[in-house]
Request: fold
Amino acid sequence: MKDLLLANPVFNMAASQFDRAAAHLSLAADIAERCKWPKRVITVSVPVRMDDGHLEMFFGHRVQHHLSGGPVKGGLRYHPKVELGEVAALAMWMTWKCALTGLPFGGGKGGIACDPSHLSMGELERITRRFTQEMIPFIGPTIDVMAPDVGTNETTMAWMTDTWSVHVGSLDPGIVTGKPIGLQGSVGRKEATGHGVAFLAVSALEKLGMKASETTAVIQGFGNVGTYAARNLARYGARVIAVGDVTGAIYNAAGLDITALMTYAAEHRGIAGFPGGEAIASADLLTLECDVLAPCALERVITAENAGRLRCKVLAEGANGPTTPEADELLEKRDDIFLIPDILCNSGGVIVSYFEWVQSFQHMAWTENEVRLKLEQILTTSFRDVTTTAKREGIGHRVAALMLGIKRVAETKQLRGLFP
Reply:
């Protein structure tokens, strides 16, 4: 299994980051091994009757990385390129993210290799319900709690909630987060990750002595995370001068109208052709001159080839694993970029997922103001912990964030011991 996971470049990258942070911690070899490798790796076949009557076989994965401190928490993604190694890497990052922010969760991640854009609602529902049914022996509100991710949304979570609830015989909203409000979802969950990206980016700007109202931002990715990161940066007063998604990239030096762009993207299933900006090459997006650059799409987009050409002051990693280790080495040699690493920067989603999970057990709904204030308190504390540790140890922000998360997981495993 180790060789299979390490053959995947995304998992190899996550493992490399772990090894580096563990070395800084002088972590004992036996504890390091227990922290690094996933607790459970599950792959199931998902047979589905398609709309035209033929049977299609899909394959779903779920990796539960760390269960010593509580249930695992993490998204379920639908994407044609879902691979087991990638899912395992995302589960590992989620473990450090939860530990860094003080949540009582381990990291989990799931995915089904499919293209949701080519599937009907009925086909998506049947895929979701069958996958949930196959996963029933391994999930539960105190075992594994899933959430939306790339290619999934609150409707997906509603189907999962219903499938699980039929199994247990009553509505059990704690089985997933990111649900519709009508199924005891939480206000503020949908926009939480993007809000966190924007909030931390502004925190970094303030630390650099800059006012958000006098800055520019570039957003790569205009899905859930990128959309709300852009919207909230604009609300803080920043000019969002460029945005890109799978359909293309657009630029407006005076600032894009994000509200209008959100409406346009929803109607046209992408931003290409938006009349409020000019088209630019997607490859040029990351190297535009700006104050805040927020990669909010998929992994490994900042590489050794383009890291030296970044012209931002704050790099806010809204995506998981957007920067390769080779690029990290180059960025650490630069003192002109303030990095907000992914396990901190995009943690808003799992933090509000935790709030939703708590509300499910309490059978009590919090107000939007309560959710936002609690989210920002946790983000502020975690931001301070990372920057303070980095300064004290003379290390970069990514290694500092990983060290804090890994150390807390290692302490939990040491407290519980090894059975038998």
About this structure: The chain has a mean pLDDT of 97. The chain is about 45% helix and 15% strand.
